[in-house]
Model the fold of this input.
Amino acid sequence: MVTGSGVPPPGTIPVVMPGDVLVVDAAGLAVWAGAVTVYPHGFAFTLRTLSDSRRIGPPPTPWALDVAERERMTWLEVRYSDGRTRAADLNANTPPRQPQGPHLRAMDAGGSDGCDISRWWVTPLPPPGPVDLAIHLNGDKTPTGVGRLDGAALLSAATRAQVIWLEPREDRPGDAHGDQE
Done:
């Protein structure tokens, strides 16, 4: 099984898959997941967090960078139907105890007042069944909201992604076969 370098392969044209979900829908607060792009060994999606400054309650905190920060910060968790799960810890995201993944990595993030946009990479592909995206706002132990993607649809879309060129494998820098095995 290949986990890749933690980002989508640059030599591949992904398949865009319908899968927009409203993960959190509360007064003055919304978290949307969508813009799902699927590759042969993983998928990427965008999270958009909208917070109205007039809402009662604190705005969402920034993303947790470490497990210890989860008690007070916002974090994302991906759950596969076979029981595998992974929470995003931006500084420590590939635990030795879970080499089969899923692995979750923030690729890009930005925002302005009341709007946070981030792009996430997940690998490997899930098994058929639901793929839950759970948002834990401001240190909540239980998810504030959960959105669901279709694992079977992700697998189907992955078969239609087009590999234009292969990337060299990380364990063999000169290997022209790439990590697309």
Remarks:
- The helical segments are 151-158.
- Residues 172-181 have pLDDT under 50 and may be disordered.
- Residues 75 and 81 are 20 Å apart (CA to CA).
